[in-house]
TrEMBL record:
Protein name: Uncharacterized protein
UniProt GO molecular function: unfolded protein binding
Keyword Oxidoreductase tagged: no
Example GO biological process: protein folding
Length: 310
């Protein structure tokens, strides 16, 4: 039976699920006999643990790796660079600094995603394991900055001030450090607290599951609830609300694609590509829509008339 905190089903049924890289290294060290099928040979193994479907490592059997998602990540990196530039230009907009940090963190997750799921590095290698742990830390921290943007938008504390930025940066660094450490502990089993999994084939880790699966979903949900309350209840606006609703729908669709259609696309393409590229595209579009929503409820620049009169 699957318990809360088990990654076994995800690592077998969801192609390109990056956190499986951590468990591959753990099993390779403690229970190598558990690795079977396509996972038995680390040189060609796809992302996952004994996956039902997965793209082989690049260069193995004519495989190009997870090429579709590599392209999607590359395009998303360019889009995010543009969004960061646009955000930086809106000097007077409320929450500009905080939103820019969210965009920067999401931007940073993309090259890590490209590497950890692209099929370039050998499964079980130290380089892939460490990069995956950092990737997990960046994802968890990015969702904190997303939620923090909603909290800043309530204007409980003034945005851009030390009272806003100090806790913002403290929790960003803390969540990144904690998630990265736990991820490394799962892979390398430094302590008995976070690993190894018992039984090995369950790929069990409650802290990692909370930080990489439960926390992102909860943070996104709270963000959308708070922002819609601010737009409708406080600002009494309607048009910006539809931006947030559209962003929420795109985010949900990206997750449905990744967890439900991913394997279908993988099988349909005979493991040449999987559905992770669709999820990446939808997530990036959702972030762009969030920028449009933020833009619609903030000022572009300070009103000079407030200082100099008419």
């Amino acid at each position: 039976m699957t318990r809360f905190g088990d990654f076994q089903y995800l690592c077998s049924n969801v192609p390109s699920y990056p956190w499986c890289n951590l468990f591959y290294h753990q099993l390779q060290r403690h229970s190598p006999s558990t690795l079977a099928g396509p996972s038995a040979n680390a040189v060609s193994a796809p992302v996952g643990i004994n996956p039902i479907c997965g793209t082989l490592r690049s260069g193995q059997g004519g495989s190009l790796g997870n090429i579709a998602n590599v392209v999607a990540c590359a395009v998303s990196i360019i889009i995010m660079a543009v969004l960061i530039l646009f955000t930086n230009r809106r000097k007077a907009a409320v929450g500009r600094i905080e939103l820019r940090h969210f965009f920067i963190l999401y931007f940073l997750t993309l090259p890590f995603q490209l590497v950890t799921t692209g099929g370039f590095l050998e499964q079980g290698s130290s380089s892939l394991t460490i990069l995956t742990a950092i990737h997990a830390g960046l994802v968890a921290a990015a969702f904190w900055t997303l939620l923090a943007n909603a909290l800043v938008a309530t204007q409980v504390v003034e945005d851009g001030t030390l009272s806003s930025l100090i806790p913002f940066h403290f929790f960003t660094l803390a969540i990144f450090a904690i998630t990265t450490y736990i991820s490394l502990d799962v892979a390398y089993t430094y302590t008995s607290t976070f690993g190894p999994s018992n039984p090995p084939q369950a790929l069990h880790s409650v802290p990692l599951f909370i930080l990489t699966s439960v926390w992102p979903g909860a943070a996104a949900l709270l963000y959308f609830i708070i922002m819609i309350w601010i737009v409708v209840g406080v600002l009494n606006e309607v048009r910006p609300m539809w931006y947030f609703i559209l962003a929420a729908i795109l985010f949900v669709l990206s997750q449905l694609d990744f967890f439900l259609l991913n394997k279908v696309i993988c099988k349909g393409s005979t493991a040449k590509v999987d559905g992770s590229f669709v999820a990446t595209i939808l997530e990036t579009i959702a972030v762009w829509v969030l920028y449009s929503a933020w833009k619609s409820i903030t000022e572009d620049s300070w009103d000079d008339e407030a200082y100099y009169g008419r």
